[in-house]
Amino acid sequence: MTTPKSRALTRLDAAIAAAGSPVAAACLKAERAGLLARLGRFDEVRRTLDELRAQHANTPSPALAAWLCLAEGLMDHYRDQAASARDRIQRAYAFSTAARERPLIAVCAAWLAHFDYVYDDLGGVARHVAEALQEAADDHHAARARACLVAAQSYHWGGRSERAQPWYQRAREHATADGDATTIGALMINRAWISGNQARMASIFGPDAAAPNPNAVREALVGAESAGHFDAYVGRNALRSMARVMRAQLVLAQGDYAEALALFDAHLPGAVDDGLSYMLPVLHADIAWCKFKLGCADDALAEARLAQASFGPDCEEEDSAAANGRLAQVFSALGLDAEAKPHAERAAAELKTLREQQALLVSLLDAALRQVPGLQ
Fold first, then answer.
1. Half-sphere exposure of residue 340, counting CA atoms within 13 Å on the CB side?
2. Residues 88-97: pLDDT tens digits?
3. Does residue 3 sit in helix, strand or coil?
4. Residue (of 369, 375, 376) closest to 128 by Cα position
């Protein structure tokens, strides 16, 4: 199937051709490279950035430095979720403030909010979403789409889906106006991912651990499948394993253990290759539960041991809580109550912390957005 050319790429190509100076053209080429990074076209991104740095090594332009850092940060993130990505985005933001260009500040602040969200900097999320919206003109669709998407995800993750919905709608409208299919794809997968995580947590901890919704698993599964099809249609390859892993976890939440196990087995290596190794504790724990449910107790215990050995400092709070909760289930079902107990205790503590963080993010975002003129 031939993928359609991004309208955002077409717009940038036209702007590059019409640029009034070499520096302006270089900034637009770096912006284009950032979009290609989100599409997963990393070899092309690397060539473009190397050429720009060679051609403009002696060009004293904070704006160009900001665009180059932004593109490199996006490539690091979408290629393998490297920790260097956030550092590059922070440098891009610093260069943007030095350039004193409000549109550039807006887009860098929006992406910094995205990375604040990824790295659980709750105050940074609220502060940079508000700054991006305040600095962006009404028709600066790229900055507003990303900032609105971060706001939507934050409210959704915080358990306030009713507040998230209008922000998702704004993000979609701005991304559509910008011709940015990658942001629409990100909206679809991230929305499904959060819904899927909420359904997963409910399946582990019971209905009180998340807002009860009898259709949550089915809706999240449909969202994940739609996002995967959309990404394939527009040629977006970055982080392609997210939808596949989520599908496995949601099929597990539905109780179809054989299909879930087949999906985990098929996609676990690719998930690791795509930078999702921080999820190994919960993935191995889910696989252990599938194997127990399928009557393979010895294999379930071996998989649980792999999960225990996979915990590391990069394991996110939500995944750690889910992994410990699932391991408590596995060990208890295997009759190993002494091993189940510490996992259950850790899961309860992590879940409590998680709920506190979610409430804090909602509060911080509410307060920050109240300071932005013109927001309803």
1. 11
2. 999 999 999 9
3. coil
4. 369
